[in-house]
Amino acid sequence: MLSNETLIKAIDDQSKSVKTKSLDISFNELLDMYNNQELIINPDYQRMFRWPDEKQSMFIESLILEMPLPPIFVIEEQEGIYELIDGLQRISTYLHFRYKDIDEKIRKDFGTDRINSELVLTDCDIVKELNDYTFDDLPRAIQLKLKRNFIRMEVLRKETDTNIRYHMFKRLNTGGELLSNQEVRNCTIRLLGNKFNNFIIECSEYEYFKKAIANVRNEYMITKKDQELVLRYFALKNNLENYKKDLDFFLTDYMEKVTTGQFPFHYEKERIIFEKVFKCLVEINGKNAFSSAIDLEENKFKTGIIMYFYDSFTCGIAQCEDIIESKSPKNMKKALNGLRKNKEFLKTRTGGKRNTEERIALVEDAIRNC
Is 153 left (phi over 0), alpha (psi -120 to 50) or beta? Predict the structure, then answer.
């Protein structure tokens, strides 16, 4: 354990690297900043605007009633240019309500498939008379009240250390508006670097990967679960020795360490193996590569992905990447389907490092000897 003096110095050193300031900003100023591209909402982040119209309406109602608001957080990219890191739902709701006042040149960046017009208030439960109103419908006095209502903006200054910025972003955005863990990773990791994250996204678009998870791909794409499956494969394949009980922490930690160069990652080699593995799996069982079997003889499967199949089949075949192209898909299918009902394999189906290692080893042995 460190001495008190050493601990205090370590805390002081990190505290000095955090540079902040606070501003009180009116909502009309926020709209102006967005139109002037002085308030940046990253496109990947903007896609996470999830509040339904009812919840958005209740927020606008709260603004009209001048209820207290928690602060928003931004990062100062350069003098006077800020990137939103916490407060997406609230700021996007106000922009949605003022949709007609968003500059036409950037309106397409704000809009999504479900946002192409101004918000119409619905389900306001305190002032029910507000329902069916748009911003333009409101009396001028109420419009001015909305415009002049302000919110505290906490600014992380550009002088702040990059690692501190990253960890602040990650902590603020963990446990937000029902974001998946992978959505949070995608948003936060870019503060450390984009290369590995972009690589994962590219792999998730690989033809045979999409075919292997075709049963659930549309559902998984909504929350980036397909990208998390790619990350999961690389993390288990290359870093299984560091896998503990908390899978989410394990995946995030691996992504951070590859991004910052603490873990080596050979991109072209990994791409080749990844493509071999998923092409092989599709040739064996198509879209049922990781599904639970109803009747193997009749080739009938349930819809879905069994994660212990995914982990062991992908990583086990990756261990055999040097020989899989010489193996018969028919023989490999027989070997993998045999494992689906193998007692030794099934007794290791719960999570954890040891069971995962054992399952991967059984898959590798089955493929090499088929």
Answer: beta
Paired sense of beta strands 150-156 and 72-78, if any: parallel
Supply the pLDDT for residue 341: 84
Measured at the CA of 132, the angle between CA 131 and CA 135, to 5 degrees, comes to: 100
Whether the Cβ atoms of residue 52 and residue 66 lie closer than 8 Å to each other: no
Per-residue confidence (pLDDT) for residue 175, from 0 to 100: 45
3 state SS of 346 = helix
Token pair of 60 as six digits: 């606008």
Nearest to 186 by CA among 259, 238, 83: 259
Q: Strand 81-86 to strand 293-295: parallel, antiparallel, or no bridges (unpaired)?
A: unpaired
Q: Measured between alpha carbons, how far is 276 from 274 in angstroms, rounded to an integer?
A: 6
Question: How many angstroms separate the most distant Cα atoms in the chain?
Answer: 79
Using 70 as the pLDDT threshold, list the residues of the chain that sit under it.
1-2, 4, 6-20, 43-48, 111-114, 158-179, 187, 191
CA angle at 94 for the pair 88 and 97, rounded to the nearest 5°: 135
| pTM listed for this prediction | 0.65
Q: Judge contact between 182 and 223, C-beta under 8 A.
A: yes
Q: Both tokens of residue 54?
A: 């009812």
Separation between Cα atoms, residue 131 and residue 61, nearest integer Å = 10
**CA-CA distances (angstroms) from residue 119 to 12, 114, 137?**
47, 11, 11
List alpha helices for the chain, DSSP H.
4-16, 27-35, 43-46, 53-64, 88-97, 104-110, 140-148, 162-172, 181-189, 195-204, 207-212, 217-222, 225-239, 247-259, 267-285, 307-318, 329-340, 343-346, 353-368
Domain ranges, ordered by start, for the chain: 17-177, 195-368
CB atoms within 10 A of CB 243: 20
Confidence at residue 165, expressed as pLDDT on a 0 to 100 scale: 63
pLDDT score at 209:
96
